[in-house]
Amino acid sequence: MSSELEIGLYIFMLAGFLGYHIITRVPPLLHTPLMSATNAIAGISLVGSLVVAGANYGPFSTLLGFIAVTCSATNVVGGFLITDRMLKMFKTSADANAAKKNTARNVIIVIAIVIAAGLAFLFWGMSQGQNFGTVLHQKFSDHALRYSYIISAAMFILGLKGLSSPKHARKGMFAAEAGMLLAVVGTLFHHEIVTYQWIIIGFVIGAAIGGTMGLRIPMTAVPQRTALSHSLGALAACLVGVSEYFRHGAEIDKVVMTALGFEVVIGGLTFTGSLMAAAKLQELLPGRPITYKGQNIFNFVLLAVIVASLIYLVIQPGTPYLFYVMVGLSLLFGLLLVIPIGAADMPVVIALLNSYGGLADASMGFVLMNKIQIITGSLDGTSGFLLSLLMCRAMNRSAFNVLFGAFGKLEVSEETQALEAKGSVRSITPDEVSTLLDSFRSVIIVPGYGMAVAQAQHGVAELAKEMQKRGINVKYAIHPVAGRMPGHMNVLLAEANVPYDQLYTMEQINPYFPEADLALIVGANDVTNPAARSDKNSPLYGMPILEVDRAKSIIVLKRSMRPGFAGVDNELYYDSKCMMLFGDAKQSLNELFGALKTGH
Ligand code: NAP
Q: In sequence order, what are the beta bridge partners of 579?
């Protein structure tokens, strides 16, 4: 084993352990920003892509490098912007009243000026003649590049460390952004880069797409944006791997071929798998699991063929046809892996694919012997893996069940059964709720996926404020897997200016339910289903739930008696304390707010 490889493996392991310790300290409140932050940091694949796009490796490699630069730049710019947008929203009640500071905007302006100056410098350099890269190399040696990578790595770690508290999270992210800038600028001086034309065009296109997504995408669409950017990051890694194989082919040694094989296989399957996840979350594809007979066996056989091809290629690197077939099969495997998984399980899939994307990046680091990519790939891999484990634990399901269980698949007969009334259900009107609220002193609001669908977070926040004005104590109960992403509800409520000190985790809030006058459930279903505690036959059995049934009264805002993602009826709705306010949550909240204001 070469000493470079040995050092690389040490770095990979240590970064993984460090990542584990830092990421376990990130509170559930910040799990969604954590996903987009690691996604932005994983955009470090940009540094490898820059070299491929700018070096003189031939037109095919330049084309692949150009696409990889575009994808990575989209992730870096989009990922950091949306993370900052989210983090800006998290405020305590005290912060909400304090004067706004413009530090963030100032830092962004400084970063933009540095990038613009860098680009202007490169343009000037290109106009000076062909050998600009050589001149740069003479002036700024490779040592400068190495040092810039060491500082960047430290800044990325500080950035993730900042996410352990909403107070320091933005500062941490600025450190990570500065680290990324340093790594990218340092790479521009790489001795193999001889032209900047494709780098600049790719970067500008990527920054424009990422910038638009980062600034404009609604918070309700964050899960699908995250999936989409994992797919772009993985595509970049896969393309750089293909370019490296194309360049070196039969000359590749066994160790590099192993890393390169991992890079293209994991990159390929993560690319198509994440695309499928994004399409399911965006409802471009049906959210229900799509299954067929023998699916799991077929997938396992396909995976076995891919692994066998990889082993053969390590022994015989000079078999290009097999290499390209293996890449094609990996792309197919990603599609087939995600098709049978239901939309609500996509967060686990996204987190797992995030972790795979990290591994693809780290493999790319091994192929290019780029240590900063090994570090960030390892951090990204650990983060995704930990988040998926946390989600599985919160649902009391195994990762195997999520990936291969086709959970949430309703057979027609079951669906009919689920819709059959199991007792009498009491419905209530907004005016009646308003009258009831007059006698309540404490209310716990329980948001769920339906709040995101209805985009009702602002309505919830307005109603809560109105109740608080009337002296009612309001708390929010956040289940770790409510919605379609870990921390999804926290981000939406933060967007609606709900101070995060009013948001309680499941463990914190459950003891409060027995004293609450009302549990007001807004579009949550599975996470409140008491069958998870009592019915051994329920697919939800064992999942820790929000104990809303212990509150003195319960009001549920949803459109119908249809079940939630798990496809099981909720016995809560037949509880004598429970009243159903049927209708779109946003509409119902508007009417309820109106009734409260007019004093009905
Ligand atoms: P849920 O069980 O999927 O239920 C959402 C409810 O919202 C539905 O019953 C639906 O009822 C209602 N709804 C939909 N659109 C609405 C609208 N416009 N207005 C009002 N109500 C609306 O959601 P959940 O309680 O948040 O549970 C999340 C599920 O996702 C769990 O099964 C969890 O295991 C799974 N999951 C989540 C994650 C994560 O990270 N968040 C990860 C993995 C799995 P109607 O159709 O009758 O309106």
A: 426, 555
